[in-house]
Amino acid sequence: MRSNERPRRAIRITGLITVALLGFLFWVIYGKTPAPAAANWIGHLPTVNASLNGLAASLLLMGFAAIKAGRKGLHMAMMIAATLASVTFLAGYILHHYYYGDTPFTASGLIRPLYFFILISHILLSMALVPLVLLTLYFALSGRFVSHKGIARWTFPIWMYVSVTGILVYLILNTFNGR
Predict the structure, then answer these.
(1) Distance CA 117, CA 178 (A)
(2) Under a CB-based contact definition with an 8 Å cutoff, are residues 159 and 131 in contact?
(3) pLDDT digit string (tens) for 117-128?
(4) How far apart are CA 89 and CA 143, in angstroms?
(5) Which one of 38, 70, 80, 164 counts the least CB within 10 Å of its CB?
(6) What is the distance in angstroms between the CA of the first residue and the CA of the last residue of the chain?
(7) Are 37 and 173 in contact (CB under 8 A)?
(8) For residue 65, how many other CB atoms are within 10 A of its CB?
(9) Which own/partner pairs from 63-69 qualify as long-range (CB within 8 Å, at least 24 positions apart)?
């Protein structure tokens, strides 16, 4: 395989993974009836997931600082750890929605449009984040550092936004929902 075909193949595979994952998530959240008899600990997953978003954001910031300081090994470790935190979040998110379905937002007043702005931007950017993270990792792990740096300029701020707004969505739901 020629070297210029590898990135194209990676992009196609990334696209397929993204479409499959987003389709599965849409089905879990909106297309299926929540599963019965969830274990008690599943009800705690939103708190765990918000913590994982906070951990991912912290690791991203440390990874960013590490690369700016020229510490490539530390940067790689932080970015892999951030990826693992985000993947663990995604698994918990899927598991929670599998058992509980969607969580309606019942609050009214000024918080309602603010919440939906944060939520919608969070959802749209998280959908874009999947292929961005996969390609950023691919370029780094395949030694294509120019391409890695180019896409990471987009991936990092979007990933930070998605991680931080994930925490905000959790906090707003727990503070204002049902009032």
Answers:
(1) 19
(2) no
(3) 999 999 999 999
(4) 27
(5) 70
(6) 60
(7) no
(8) 13
(9) 64/156
**What's the one-letter identity of residue 168?**
L
Question: Tell me, what CATH number does 74's domain have?
Answer: 1.20.120
pLDDT tens per residue, range 89-118? 999 998 888 888 788 899 999 999 999 999
Place 21 in a pLDDT band, splitting at 50, 70 and 90.
confident
In whole angstroms, give the CA distance from residue 32 to residue 154.
Answer: 34
Three-class DSSP category at 109: coil
Total domain count, the chain: 1
Question: What are the tokens at 104?
Answer: 């309606």
Written as six digits, the tokens of 61 are 């910031």
- What DSSP element (H or E) covers 157? helix 145-176
